[in-house]
Design brief:
With 351 residues, this protein is of the alpha/beta class. Strands 1, 2, 7, 8, 9, 10 and 21 form a 7-stranded mixed beta sheet that branches. Strands 12-19-13-14-15 form a 5-stranded parallel beta sheet. Strands 16-17-18 form a 3-stranded antiparallel beta sheet. The longest helix has 21 residues. The mean pLDDT is 94. It binds NADP nicotinamide-adenine-dinucleotide phosphate. The site of NADP nicotinamide-adenine-dinucleotide phosphate (NAP) has 18 residues, from α6. The site of NADP nicotinamide-adenine-dinucleotide phosphate has 18 residues, from α6.
Length: 351
């Protein structure tokens, strides 16, 4: 018997779709993915620290709630609770992993079946739709919700490649606390909210953080910009692009060569770390071009205010289709929409 709904991806879009589909008695099957360089289970939020802007999660003693809600056998996944106290009480926003574990728990509570595998190929030219997992299983389903998110971009320099995991990273939160980055100068590349967030985070460990941006103004929101400008350990290096990563086999990255984007000048910054925060690429390789994409490679939503794609029965939710908002809460919203869209289609076709 074909499945009614298969969900691919385990970020806020995937879990929200699962919660809605499960509560609609559609018995969803969710492919959570495995750890890979481009994607990890629970998605990009699993690589972030505190999430201050997800409605419904004001700062407080979040950990007490998380531990009461999430199954004990998954507590080992939780990061240490931040040590922020106000008037003797814990007062911190929910952390990315905590939020995702809560969403996963909610989906499990309503009966979502979770598979710890990747979907590696699809055949959307048949009905029911066909999916193949990395482990070899083939799954048939009347509807599929794609919620595979997007991954961090790199500059594409060969010197950058050779220092990956030896100084070059795209995740400050994952790697920032490593000994090689402590009390050392670090570089963050980019000018958006992610770059400022990563740079600010890294000031906890670094002697100085250079935020290298190719223009003379940041793209980040005003509040984030102010945070950067107010931080005494953070220095913005304007109109500059990383031209080469410097270092050797023994020490890994020791610095970066910058070239100006406005004249012919160049300079070198000593740094034991370079963190990329220059945007994302949607995780769509497994689709092998079977859905229409926009010019940036994101899945196209083909109807306004719907999550339909170019193939009937296939819906897309979250960052894999959204190169505009890209927020946890908008991803969760489109996950809900995708489940409702799938439910309506299933009703129409009598499934
Ligand atoms: P983004 O807003 O697209 O910013 C990417 C930055 O990288 C831009 O400043 C861009 O420069 C720069 N860049 C791109 N390609 C580059 C290259 N090849 N070389 C050098 N620089 C390059 O991406 P993001 O910062 O990841 O943010 C994505 C979305 O998530 C946004 O909507 C953001 O608001 C949101 N977000 C929110 C929070 C928060 O609210 N706490 C935190 C993180 C992210 P240009 O400016 O010159 O184009």
């Amino acid at each position: 018997m074909p499945e009614r709904v298969v969900i691919i991806g385990s970020g806020p879009a995937g879990w929200s779709a699962a919660i809605y589909a499960a509560r609609a008695n559609l018995n969803p099957l969710l492919f959570e993915g495995t750890i890979k360089p481009e994607m990890i289970p629970l998605g990009q939020l699993a690589m972030t620290t505190e999430v201050e802007n997800f409605a419904g999660f004001p700062a407080g003693n979040i950990r007490a709630f998380v531990e009461s809600a999430v199954d004990k056998d998954r507590h080992y996944n939780l990061p240490p609770a931040p040590d922020h106290k106000k008037d003797g009480e814990y007062h911190y926003a929910v952390q990315g992993v905590e939020l995702m574990e809560l969403m996963k728990q909610q989906a499990l509570n309503f009966g979502t079946r979770v598979v710890g595998d990747d979907i590696v190929s699809v055949d959307f030219g048949t009905k029911p739709l066909k999916l193949t997992a990395a482990g070899g299983d083939t799954i048939e389903s009347h509807t599929v919700i794609i919620a595979t998110g997007a991954r961090a971009n790199y500059l594409g320099l060969s010197s950058e490649e050779s220092f990956k995991n030896r100084g070059v990273s795209a995740c400050a939160v994952c790697d920032g606390a490593l000994p090689r980055f402590r009390n050392q100068p670090l570089v963050v590349v980019g000018g958006g909210d992610s770059a400022v967030e990563e740079a600010t985070y890294l000031t906890k460990f670094a002697s100085t953080v250079y935020l290298v941006h190719r223009r003379d103004e940041l793209r980040a929101s005003k509040i984030m910009q102010q945070r950067a400008f107010d931080d005494p350990k953070l220095e913005v290096v304007w109109n500059s692009q990383v031209d080469e990563c410097l270092g050797d086999d023994e020490k890994g990255l020791t610095g970066v060569k910058l070239k100006s984007t406005v004249d012919d000048s160049s300079k070198t910054l000593d740094a034991t770390g370079m963190f990329l925060a220059i945007g994302h690429t949607p995780n769509t390789t497994f689709l092998d071009g079977q859905l229409d994409m926009n010019e940036k490679g994101y899945i196209k939503w083909t109807q306004s205010f719907r999550t339909n794609t170019s193939v009937e029965g296939v819906f897309a939710a979250g960052d894999v289709a959204d190169d505009n908002y890209r927020q946890a809460i908008t991803s969760a919203g489109t996950g809900c929409m995708a489940a409702l869209d799938a439910e309506r289609l299933l009703a129409e076709i009598g499934e």
